[in-house]
Amino acid sequence: MRKYLSAMILTILLLVIWEVAARMVNIMFILPSPIGIGVRLWELKRELFLNHLPATLMITLLGLSISIILGVAIAILMKLSPMIERTIYPILITSQTIPVIALAPIFVLWFGYSIWGKVVMTTLITFFPITVSTIDGFRSSSKQMEELLLTMGASQKDIFFKLHIPSALPHFFSGLKVAIPLSVIGAAIGEWLGAQSGLGYFSRRMMTQFDGAAVFAPIVILSMIGIILFIIVVLTEKWIFKWR
Asked: Are 100 and 124 in contact (CB under 8 A)?
């Protein structure tokens, strides 16, 4: 707790400033206070946690899982074949110049209001940092260690599993920690633009009713999802890298 005391003090200070400012403005549908948001969150807890949270969580986890599989597979292919790397890498970079939110109406046309349009959007947002971080991890493996393993009679398979993968794992987890907040954002944006359930959908619905506190309540839950998933990844990374 002492390690994060400064962050806690700053957070409390910002919340106090927000509370005072909201009470001074006194326009709750535009600037609700933190206490008002907390009260509204408690009032809506059943609907949010039982009806909308499972939908958003499913989209987030599905999109993130597909991103991990797709990103790692592409990184391995680029590592094994320089020609594949020269072919795919520029396309990966170019794909990130396309604003994904502009593709959302197309996904609605293709998939309707089903879960898969939101999953595709989440995947498009999150797979890039995982892919780039993993391929950078493969590139960071020691050439001297590789030459040593070759002189000791190691096969390419041995070198890949005993050198390249351990070298890439820290970079993979770094990319994953970047992708986790993006996965929550992607799910919320997808639900905001077209859905029948989910925290993003609920926030948009409350906006049309000018209920500012209810608009912020799902955002608090989305933030908590991102924080919990991030902590899980950090703990998993520490468990895997005990040897370090």
From this structure: yes
Domain ranges in the chain are: 40-240
Token digits of residue 138: 């493969």
In this structure, what is the dihedral angle of CA atoms 69, 70, 76, 78, given to the nearest 10 degrees? -170
pTM of this prediction? 0.85
Pick the CATH number of 40-240 from 1.10.3720.10, 3.40.50.2000, 3.40.50.300, 1.20.1250.20: 1.10.3720.10
d(CA 21, CA 34): 11
Nearest 5°: the CA angle 146, 92, 130 is 60
CA 14, 19, 21 angle in degrees (round to 5)? 95
Q: Count of H helices and E strands in the chain? A: 12, 0
What is the per-residue pLDDT across 165-215, written as a single tens digit (0 to 9) for each? 988 999 999 999 999 999 998 888 888 877 778 888 888 888 888 888 888
Alpha carbons 29 and 207: distance in angstroms, whole number: 9
HSE (CB half, 13 Å, CA atoms) of 133? 19
- Residue 216 · residue 37 · CB < 8 Å: yes
